[in-house]
Amino acid sequence: MTSRPTDRAPRARRRLGSLGIALGLLLALVTFELLLQGIAFALWLGGDRSGGAADGRQVVLCVGDSNTYGVGAASPDGSYPARLQRLLDARAPGAWRVVNGAYPGQNSRQVLLKLPAQLASLRPRLVYVLVGTNDEWSSPAPVAAAELDAARADGGFPLRLRTLRFAALVWAWLRGGGPATVREQTQYLGTWHVPETGIEVVIEDGGRFVLGGHDMTWRPDGDELVVTLPDGSEHRLGWERVDAGLHLRGPSFGDHVLLPGPAPAQNRTGNEHYFVDEAPPRDAAELDARFAAVVERIREEPSDLAAWRRLAALPLEQRHWDEFGTLMEQLLAGSTDDYWRSGLLRGLSLLPRTPRDVALRRQLEASCIDGKGGPVVLFLQTMKPPVERAEYEAAVAAVAGADTAERERLRQLYAQYLDPFAGFAGVLDHNLRLTVERCRAAGAEPVLVDYPLRIPIVDDVMSRIANDLGVGYVPVGTHFATLLQSQGYAELFVPGAHCNDHGYEVLAARIFDDLCARVPELR
């Protein structure tokens, strides 16, 4: 039967009414989303993202690895940035802020990827860059421009769909959870530790985030934690509960499943601030007593990492090298862990009385265990007289035997030694040039700094970039080499090539002289 016109009219009106309601709801949702975005943007805009610039002080940003962070100093105040701050305060009180943006173990890639956020938040006038030695063992990839653009975007206002987040919070509240439900969404709160290193992570309800004993702050943003470092840079961490553990992941933090509670006592070296916490021995008798005490502890409990760290912090004099080597040999004989075996082999190769051929074989054996070639190249760079090809081939044959693929890999390391801009040096050159470019684009003046204990391959890269790009360069290694002719090694360094308090004082003075030469108002 044919419908009459009067039957179709109400249906059309109903459809139009439904469409109008849908459009109205959509408009309301869009308006609400824009309102939430506006509120979030206002809060973001009003936040303190300007670092030291907000208080009128000019900023000096120091980036790099453990040598900038201050490993080997008696406290954080002994690092060269902290000492530079005191020198600037004496010259121009209240005018400058020095930010230590370094962290132990960083390579040129990690430093560069953190740089855009640091430049955006701190707006430094000068950036001192001391990095390169960790590139040799970590073999970083060259940073692509797209990665830097993404890192820069991370420092800007985060665009996220906030209506869904708001709806999820309302739904959680309506389910009757209230504060308890919110607590379920913050299952990351508490004390955790990284089982591989013993580093502790503490996430407190009030926004305090502690990593390895260092205070930071955190805030939630959707399904991520935004952690703000002391230098003002922000880093996003994804999180997920995995059984009793906490899975944290992020570009700077890495990818780790943390276990609940503090680390076992024997694995807590990651929480000791990376500093040498004892004053240097006053005389030879006190050194002998400390050495005897820590050796006794190691013989009782060879896996006590804190005891090994105390031993490494002692200025080992010639009469102690043999006993130190014997301890390491004993630990090597009883170790089945590849990480420790490769590290012990490299450490034994560096002992002063190790025969040259034995040292070379130990370096190659360590490389066969973990596949890292950078330490071998560095070892070859520092050998005097230079390692000849026949000498190297004999060591390769002794270590690799009939494994042709491994022999060829080790031969390539010798080729990198002959060509200082092959392998990791080429990546370091690339990343440092991008570092210079991004500093200049942000209006900051970059200055390259080499290591107090000279690393020829890193020095070559830095001097080449300084000449090519006309960038500032502070060759502190030359100054330290001169001082070592009149002062003992232990007066400037702790074992392991890091400065002690006096060494960092010398380094800060060289940086201060360079800074004053570049800034007219400081002369």
How are the SSEs ordered, and which strands pair?
Elements: H1 5-46, E1 58-64, H2 66-69, H3 80-91, E2 96-100, H4 108-122, E3 126-130, H5 135-138, H6 145-154, H7 162-174, H8 179-185, E4 190-193, E5 200-203, E6 208-211, E7 214-221, E8 224-228, E9 234-242, E10 245-250, E11 254-260, H9 284-300, H10 305-313, H11 318-334, H12 338-349, H13 356-370, H14 374-382, H15 389-400, H16 404-418, H17 424-441, E12 445-449, H18 456-469, E13 472-474, H19 476-484, E14 493-494, E15 498-499, H20 501-518
Parallel strand pairs: 1-2, 1-3, 3-12, 12-13
Antiparallel strand pairs: 4-5, 4-11, 5-6, 6-7, 7-8, 8-9, 9-10, 10-11, 14-15
Helix pairs in contact: 3-20, 4-6, 4-17, 9-10, 11-12, 12-13, 13-14, 13-15, 14-16, 15-16, 17-18
How would you characterize this protein structure?
This protein has helices spanning 5-46, 66-69, 80-91, 108-122, 135-138, 145-154, 162-174, 179-185, 284-300, 305-313, 318-334, 338-349, 356-370, 374-382, 389-400, 404-418, 424-441, 456-469, 476-484, 501-518, and strands spanning 58-64, 96-100, 126-130, 190-193, 200-203, 208-211, 214-221, 224-228, 234-242, 245-250, 254-260, 445-449, 472-474, 493-494, 498-499. α9 packs antiparallel against α10 and α15 runs antiparallel to α16 (404-418). The protein is of the alpha+beta class and 523 residues long. β10 and β11 (254-260) form a beta hairpin. The strands form 3 sheets. The protein has an 8-stranded antiparallel beta barrel with strand order 4-5-6-7-8-9-10-11. The protein has a 5-stranded parallel beta sheet with strand order 2-1-3-12-13, with helices on both faces. It has a two-stranded antiparallel sheet with strand order 14-15.
